[in-house]
Every structure is written in structure tokens, then in C-alpha cells.
Design brief:
The complex is a heterodimer of chains A (372) and B (336). Chain A is mainly α and 372 residues long. Chain A is built from 16 helices and no strands. Helix content of chain A is 62%, strand content 0%. In chain A, helix 3 crosses helix 10 (226-252). Chain B is 19% helix and 33% strand. By secondary structure, chain B is of the alpha/beta class. Chain B has helices spanning 8-15, 97-105, 140-149, 170-178, 189-192, 200-203, 218-230, 272-278; strands at residues 25-35, 38-45, 57-64, 67-74, 86-91, 111-114, 130-136, 154-161, 183-188, 211-215, 237-240, 253-257, 262-266, 296-306, 312-314, 320-322, 326-334. In chain B, the strands form 3 sheets. Chain B has a 6-stranded antiparallel β-sheet with strand order 4-3-6-1-2-5. In chain B, strands 12, 13, 14, 15, 16 and 17 form a 6-stranded mixed β-sheet that branches. Classes of the chains: A mainly alpha (372), B alpha/beta (336). At the A-B interface, helix 2 and helix 9 of A face helix 1 and strand 4 of B.
Chain lengths: 372, 336
């Protein structure tokens, strides 16, 4: 869809060779998976549970402001760990090889209003297969935003910075609605579809349980700290939502990331599929703590190439993947979090307005591509 | 509700994995070498352990290189051990991932998964007057559990091992013989040659009158079953088979795991359990040798071959197959 195809210099043979080289990286990690990796995820899960327990314990005394701050910070981090490094990755089947039924994609449930089952379908199956294909991958703009110059502008898009901000604040609900394909399914006819109704009921149950836990039971358990605990859990959920929304925006939205047309993926080979994942994703650079808190989605490019490899191995994989980008003269889009978030938000704002020249690529976009 | 979507037990497991009400687990407390390739593992079982009868086996789930693998081992400790611990004695088989791990690498303090003990290779309530234990190799393990547990008046033990130093529990067995508790015959097959069942009468003249418990390789047990039935006393023979004798099967086909939507090609010799696990399907599994029925799964379409007998099972409503000893005999559909 982009006017300049950054992969145009590659021959079909080169693309297949690239695919083989990526397969070799994958095989190497799979052959080397073992005790250390298993110990890693168990340690993370155990740490997350302890942190959540302690934080909720501290919040029992949240009428005392330092306790409120400490408990809220701890709970926010615990919720981020649950969703990012643990939930997202377990649900990808990254740990299924351990054959531990308690840490398995078919049994895992996360602290999130979208039931695992539905999220796995929309995320693992749809988003990861049709990455950045407009019209197929609804992650791209979550169905409410204009994400490319070539998409037709509509006055509705004027509000997209606002929609995006609201979506960031209530991100888990946004995802649940998106997993339900709410926009499409709210038409009168589809609403009555029994399959849709069953899924909607499942979401309803999940929301009820989560809300009851966070906003009724734990505040009640806190007795005199009822209101402060309520505020703390609300804050922790807000922090978690803003954080995950930011991380996820950085994965596919920053300038320099390509989007694709439906017809471009017809008859795609394995090499071409890999290439689309490479060009459709962007990384976040930073410290080990940064990678951990993003659930290693800071290594979004590596994650999209190998969604089922254990997340703790993405850092070492990234070195080899980056070398391949250089070898094949492709642009590895990466940058620190603030820069990438800013870049993604700028795009949201820019595309909320109609283009000056709807067809031709503007020179400044080209420069951004190079600079990104 | 307090912990949704987790359960309170997920948190309790962090501090007390062996408590009552937890999934059954055990902690390895010690590993004692028995021979060059066998070791006894002392396990403290969780509070939910219901106790065993001598001669039974237990399934253990051990994490080997991060992967949980389940195997069944005979319990070698008596049922009334005062400290409540149980022992299994494991012989490392060449290429065996779990047995080699337990014998050579397992460390005290490690948590393992347990199942309740099972198996009917046990003494009857009415104690038989004359007993023969016929064992070979690690086949001595369930019998050792019985010897340590129940003293009987007239016991003969015939045990086969390649060399004297390969006899598991050698000193204890010889001690029992010296105390007159058992009559022991060791057959060292490297020097004496394989035990010829037809000539068992030379070692144990009254074998046909004895209630016999036999455990060892399939060859020995097959020969024993033929010998006992040829003499019309098959009712006195009790056997325990550790590993199914695998027949060379042909065919194979495309296996569909319809609950997860996975499809893979399988050959006619690989158990469907392995096929499923390789494909990333969470398969229920058990002893992996066809005795515990922990792996039974609905066969929705097609046919499978029993790797032990060659018997073909075809899909019908309600048919469950043991995936650990069944291979694809043509295309089939397993509801997993």
C-alpha cells in the first residue's frame, strides 16, 4: 500500500533464503529450550503472585497515604506482569512445551476482562496471521481508526485522538469489545446469533468477576480503607491499561512500519510471510527492566517472527534477526519508548485529518521513514 | 472471587505445595545408589497421599530439562514405613530420559508430581502358604516392596541379572536368605546364560504348587505364561509388565485432533500420545505403558492399532482408546 516498497530490492530467491535463515534461528532456540527457561517462567509467575498478595495486603491499610502509594504501585506492576510477560506469552503457547497443565495455553486465564479463549482467537489467530493487512488485521486501528494515508478519510476520524485516548484508559474493555467484534456484531441480525450471544455472555461473566473482585470484595475486605482501596485498584487498572496500550501502539504504529493490502498476501510464501512480519512490526529499545515490563513485546519484530518462542529468548534472538535486517538491507524500526509512543500518537493525529495529496507520498513522510 | 481468575490454591501452592487438598506432589529427600545404574529415591509424599499396598506402582511426573514427563515405578518401601516416606527404585535404561534423570541428576529438595498408587500386583488378603517370586532386572522392585512388607513362611526368590554386581538390593536379598526368610537363587545370565523356564523345575521343584508373582522383561513373562498354562496352573501366576512389547506396525495416516483443530501425519509405530504432544496438543497422559488408563481419549473416526497386540480398534460412539499404546492405522480423529 505504501508508494515506496522498502523490500523492492529483494529477489524472490533472496526472500526464500531469508525465510530459511529465520527458520534456522527458530530451530536453534527450540533445540536449546530447557530447564533454565522453565525455571524462568516459574520464577516470574511466583514473583507476580507474591507481589500481588503483598500489594493487596498493604492496601488494607491504604487510608494511610504511604501505604496507598506503595500498594497501588505494587498492584500496578503485578497487573502489568500478569498481562504482559505472563498472560500474553503463556496464551501464545510459548510454554506449552513444558507439558505443565498449570502453565499451558489451553488452561491459562488472566487478570483481564477478555476471556483467554476469545483473545487467543482474535490475537493469535487473526492478528498474527494477517499482521498489518488492512481490512483483515483489526488490531490495526482496532477498527475505529484510520492508520494509513490511502484509507478514505471520513469526518468521524476527526475524533480519533479522543477515541484512542479513551481506548488507552479502558484498554482491557476495548480489547474485550474488539475480541467480540462488537462493531460488526451489534447490528440487529447478528446480535441474535447464538454463537455471538454465548461469547458475549462469557465476556459478561468475566467482567462481573473482575469488577466484583477489584471494586467490591477487596475494598470491602479493607473495611475503613474501603474508598482508598477502591481508588487504588482503579488506579492500578488505569496504569496497566495505559501502559499496555502504549507498548502495543509501539508494536505496529510508529512511522516506518508498513501496512499491506489484502491482495498482497494472496499465495504468500513462508519467506514472504516472514518479510511481512519484519516490515509490519517495530521494537522498543531499552534496559532489561524495560523489556521485562513490556512482556518482551519491546522485541515485537522477533515476537511476530516467532510468536511461540519463550519470551525470555527474544533478546538473544534479536541480535541475529537484526543482523539479517542489515544483510538484506531492510529497516529495523526501533527506538526508545517515549520516541515510539510520540511517533505513534503523531500518526493518530495526522491521519485524523484528510490528506493534502491523497495518492502521492509526501516528501516529509519519506524523510521520516529514513529517520525512524 | 477474591482471587479470580486464579484459585486460592494457586497462592497456597507458593508456600505449601504438599499440604492437604493440594494437587498430589512429593518432595525428593534423598537418592541412594543401588548399583552402577540403579538408585532408590526417597520421597516425602504430600498430605493427600492415601498409602499403598506392597507391590503397587506409582506414577511420578518429573521435570526433565524443563519438560514434565510421567513414568510409573514400583514402590519398594513397605506400606507401614514409620516416617511416612515412600521409595521407588529406578534403573537407568539407555536413552531413558526420566530414569537417567532420577538415577544420576535428581537432587534432594526437588518437587515431583505424584498420582495415588495403583496396580493389582499385590498379595491376596489370605496369605498363600508357598510363594515364588520370579524376577529379572528391575523386575525385582515391586517384589522387594512385597518382601520388605510381608513376611511369609515359605518363600523362594529366583532373580536374574547379568552379573552379581547388577543385582539390585543384592546385600539385602542375601541377608534375607542368610536369616532364612527366603530361599534365594540368583541367575547371572552373563555366565549362566538366560533362564530356561522349561527347566525351572530344576531350581524350584515345587514351582507348580507355588503362588507365583513374576516381573521382568516381556520375553521372560511370555515364556512364564506359556509354561504355566501348559501345565494348567495359569491361575497361580501373577505378572507385572513394565513396558509393552511393541509390534512393528505399518500404515499410519493423518491424525486429526478435533478439539484443538490440529492435524499431523503419523506413522504406524508412534503412539498417538507422542504424536499429539509433538503437535502441541495437551494430551492427558499416564503410565505410558498401557496400564493406568490415564490417557484414554475418544476416537471419533478412523482406526488405530494397539501396539502391544496388533489389534485394530475402529471408531464407534463412545469408544475410548489408550493413546499411549495406540498408533494410527490409517487416518483417524482423536477428540483432543
Amino acid at each position: 500500500m505504501t508508494a515506496i516498497d522498502p523490500t523492492a530490492h529483494l529477489t524472490a530467491e533472496q526472500i526464500e533464503e531469508l525465510g530459511r535463515e529465520l527458520d534456522a534461528i527458530r530451530d536453534e532456540v527450540i533445540a536449546g529450550r530447557g530447564e533454565k527457561d522453565a525455571a524462568y517462567i516459574r520464577k516470574v509467575i511466583s514473583a507476580q503472585r507474591k507481589l500481588e498478595l503483598v500489594s493487596r495486603g498493604v492496601l488494607l491499610f491504604s487510608f494511610f497515604p504511604p501505604a496507598w502509594l506503595l500498594g497501588t504501585a505494587g498492584l500496578s506492576v503485578a497487573k502489568i506482569m500478569d498481562n504482559m510477560e505472563i498472560g500474553h506469552n503463556v496464551l501464545h503457547g510459548q510454554w506449552d512445551w513444558m507439558r505443565d497443565p498449570k502453565i499451558h495455553s489451553t488452561t491459562w486465564e488472566w487478570d483481564h476482562v477478555s476471556p483467554s479463549e476469545q483473545w487467543k482467537h482474535s490475537h493469535n489467530e487473526l492478528h498474527h496471521t494477517y499482521t498489518n493487512v488492512i481490512g483483515k488485521d483489526n488490531d490495526l486501528g482496532y477498527g475505529i481508526m484510520r492508520v494509513d494515508e490511502d484509507q478514505r478519510w471520513h469526518p468521524f476520524h476527526l475524533g480519533q485522538p479522543l477515541w484512542n485516548f479513551l481506548n488507552a484508559c479502558f484498554f482491557e474493555y476495548g480489547i474485550a469489545a474488539y475480541d467480540l467484534e462488537l462493531g460488526r456484531n451489534l447490528s440487529k441480525r447478528r446480535r441474535k446469533d447464538p454463537e455471538f450471544r454465548a461469547r458475549a455472555r462469557a465476556v459478561g461473566r468475566k467482567i462481573r468477576k473482575q469488577v466484583l473482585k477489584d471494586y467490591v470484595i477487596h475494598p470491602l475486605l479493607s473495611g475503613p480503607s474501603f474508598l482508598t482501596t477502591l481508588a487504588a485498584t482503579f488506579t492500578a487498572n488505569l496504569v496497566r491499561n495505559l501502559w499496555s496500550h502504549s507498548v502495543i501502539m509501539c508494536g505496529h504504529f510508529p512511522e516506518g512500519v508498513q501496512v499491506f493490502e489484502r491482495r498482497s498476501i494472496k499465495g504468500e510464501t513462508r519467506g514472504q510471510w516472514y518479510l511481512r512480519q519484519m516490515m509490519g512490526s517495530a521494537n522498543i529499545s531499552g534496559s532489561r527492566a524495560m523489556h521485562f515490563m513490556t512482556g518482551n513485546l519491546s522485541h515485537q519484530i522477533e515476537h511476530h517472527l516467532f510468536p511461540d518462542l519463550p519470551s525470555n529468548r527474544y533478546a538473544e534472538v534479536a541480535v541475529k534477526v537484526r543482523a539479517l535486517f542489515e544483510k538484506y538491507e531492510l529497516e529495523y524500526v526501533t527506538g526508545p519508548l517515549p520516541k515510539q509512543v510520540f511517533s505513534a500518537w503523531r500518526k493518530v493525529f495526522r491521519l485524523s485529518l484528510p490528506n493534502k495529496k491523497p495518492t502521492a507520498r509526501t516528501p516529509d513522510r519519506e524523510q521520516e521513514l529514513v529517520a525512524a | 472471587m477474591v482471587t479470580t481468575p486464579l484459585l486460592p490454591s494457586d497462592y497456597l501452592d507458593l508456600v505449601s505445595p504438599l499440604r492437604a487438598g493440594a494437587d498430589l506432589r512429593g518432595r525428593i529427600e534423598a537418592v541412594h545408589p543401588e548399583t552402577g545404574d540403579a538408585a532408590t529415591v526417597v520421597i516425602r509424599p504430600g498430605r493427600g497421599w492415601r498409602g499403598h499396598t506392597a507391590g503397587q506402582y506409582v506414577r511420578v511426573g518429573v521435570d526433565v530439562e524443563g519438560v514434565r514427563l510421567w513414568r510409573a515405578y514400583s514402590i519398594t518401601s513397605p506400606a507401614d514405613r514409620p516416617d511416612g516416606r515412600v521409595t521407588i527404585t529406578v534403573k537407568a535404561i539407555p536413552g531413558g530420559r526420566v530414569s537417567n534423570h532420577l538415577v544420576r541428576r535428581a537432587r534432594p529438595g526437588t518437587l515431583i508430581q505424584l498420582d495415588q498408587p495403583a496396580g493389582d500386583f499385590v498379595l491376596p488378603r489370605a496369605r498363600p502358604a508357598k510363594v515364588l517370586y520370579l524376577t529379572a532386572g528391575s523386575g525385582i522392585t515391586p517384589v522387594m516392596g512385597m518382601l520388605r512388607d510381608t513376611e511369609l513362611d515359605d518363600v523362594v526368590v529366583v532373580h536374574c541379572a547379568p552379573r552379581p554386581q547388577d543385582v539390585i538390593f543384592r546385600s539385602e536379598l542375601r541377608g534375607m536368605a542368610a536369616d532364612g526368610k527366603v530361599r534365594l537363587t540368583e541367575v547371572h545370565t552373563d555366565t549362566d546364560g538366560m533362564l530356561d523356564i522349561a527347566r525351572l523345575g530344576e531350581l524350584v521343584p515345587d514351582w507348580a504348587e507355588r503362588e507365583t508373582w513374576a516381573c521382568g522383561p516381556a520375553g521372560l513373562l511370555d515364556a512364564a505364561e506359556r509354561h504355566w498354562s501348559a501345565h494348567g496352573v495359569e491361575g497361580r501366576l501373577h505378572t507385572e509388565r513394565f513396558r509393552p512389547g511393541i509390534v512393528v506396525a505399518g500404515d499410519g495416516g493423518e491424525v486429526t485432533f478435533s478439539a484443538t483443530g490440529k492435524r499431523v501425519d503419523a506413522d504406524g509405530a508412534t503412539p498417538l500420545l507422542d504424536v499429539g504432544e509433538e503437535a502441541g496438543v495437551l494430551m492427558p497422559s499416564g503410565c505410558r505403558m498401557g496400564i493406568c488408563f490415564g490417557c484414554v481419549s475418544p476416537l471419533r473416526a478412523g482406526a488405530v492399532r494397539d501396539l502391544r497386540t496388533g489389534e485394530i480398534t475402529e471408531a464407534e460412539p463412545g469408544v475410548l482408546i489408550q493413546t499411549c499404546v495406540s498408533a494410527a492405522a490409517g487416518d483417524c480423529d482423536i477428540e483432543r
